[in-house]
Specification:
The protein is an alpha+beta fold. It has 2 helices and 6 strands. Strands 1-2-3 form a 3-stranded antiparallel sheet, with helices on one face.
Length: 109
């Protein structure tokens, strides 16, 4: 997965990353110290651009249902809530089902 992961830096320090899997923006993480700096916005936009460039017609991501802060961020950045998703999150030895919302990139037509 390393080849599908890009990092975000701030003042020479890695403060976040975005990881892609298939047509999914699988993980987006930004350290609390970098919140409000635009790093999350840049990583999200980079991931979306790369998924589209790879030919995926509908990039998507999963966000835990109760994570209102993240959901608001994604909506502000041009993603829409496409409904409930029982997400099979990988764990050592298998998966665990997590109640999520599926967010899809709004693509202008």
């Amino acid at each position: 997965m390393i080849d599908r992961t890009h990092v975000g830096e701030l003042n020479g320090q890695v403060v976040g990353f975005v990881t892609l899997r298939g047509d999914e923006l699988d993980q987006l993480f930004v350290d609390a110290s970098a919140r409000g700096t635009g790093v999350a916005r840049e990583l999200l936009a980079d991931g979306a651009r790369r998924l589209l460039a790879q030919g995926h017609a509908q990039p998507w991501l999963a966000v835990v249902t109760g994570n209102a802060r993240a959901r608001h961020f994604y909506e502000r950045e041009g993603w829409r809530d496409a409904g409930h998703l029982d997400y099979e999150a990988p764990i050592e030895g298998g998966t665990v089902t997590v109640s999520c919302r599926r967010y899809e990139l709004i693509i202008p037509r």
